[in-house]
Amino acid sequence: MASSTKVDCSDKKAMFSITNMSNLFQKCAKSDKAQQVEMDLYLDAWEELIRFLNSMGKAFTFVSSDVVDKVGILRDFRKSNEGRNYATIEEMMSYEKKNDLINYKDAPSKKVKASGSRTLLRLHRALKFLLILIGKLARNEDDGKVSVMGYNAYHASPMSKYHPWIVQKAVGVAVYMLPDRETFIKQMCQDLSREEIESTMDVCSQSMDAVFEYSEALYSKFDLLEIP
Fold first, then answer.
1. What is the widest separation between alpha-carbon atoms in the chain?
2. How far lies 34's CA from each of 88, 136, 211, 216, in Å?
3. Cβ neighbours around 33 below 10 Å, total
4. pTM
5. Please, how many CA atoms are within 13 Å of residue 62, restricted to the half-sphere of its CB?
6. Alpha-carbon torsion 68, 69, 74, 78, what sign?
7. 70: how many CB neighbours lie within 10 A of its CB?
8. Radius of gyration for the alpha carbons in the chain, expressed in angstroms and rounded
9. Contact criterion met (CB below 8 Å) for 63 and 129
10. Would you indicate the residue range of the signal peptide (predicted)?
């Protein structure tokens, strides 16, 4: 059957591993409780997700440039003298809330230090966008048009709500730079059949969704969903 034939990607080096990305998010999602999601593991999963963004070309620059910065900030928190308080997502939120380290009025600047909770919230919103997109790619939704998948996933996620109008319009243009689905599948480049790639993407999307829901519950618990 055509769906189980190997994808020919010998002419293009893999930019990321869909298998690694899926495995990392599955490890995060296997936590019985949200507080058990280790920050280091979560950031490892995000670094693989960044490779996914890069594999999609310049269309997702509006996401990738920001999340690279956010992952770096959270890595720095883990390396700091207070790193033990950032070992898990819940420990971070509890520590920052208890010690009044979250600025609810002002966005980070030279005078206002970014909190870990605010920083992760940006990744959290982007995660929703990407898990929807990866799920659509896996199921070949929106008539197979990746540009439409990207547009619909963006507007179904919290990201669009917090972006100014000019950014929303720019995203609407950017998604039309996305490769077609056939090209995207070839970019997976991993000795997997098309069926295996689609199945792995679907599992990955479900695991990402579980992690999102874990984090969403924590942000709600600590009343941190609307940090500026």
1. 61
2. 9, 26, 8, 9
3. 11
4. 0.87
5. 20
6. positive
7. 21
8. 18
9. yes
10. none
User: Residue 6's beta-bridge partner residues?
Assistant: 193
Q: What is the pLDDT along the chain (228 residues), one digit of tens a residue?
A: 334 444 343 333 446 788 999 999 999 998 655 457 999 999 999 999 998 888 777 777 778 888 999 999 999 999 999 999 999 999 999 999 999 999 777 666 666 678 999 999 999 999 999 999 999 999 998 888 888 999 999 999 998 888 888 888 888 888 888 888 887 777 765 677 888 888 999 999 999 999 999 999 999 999 999 887
Contact between 171 and 62 (Cβ < 8 Å): yes
CATH label of the domain that carries residue 136: 1.10.3520.10
Range of the domain at 116: 15-221
User: Which tokens sit at 152?
Assistant: 């619909």
Give the Cα separation of 225 and 218 in Å (integer): 9
Rounded CA separation 21/41 (Å):
11
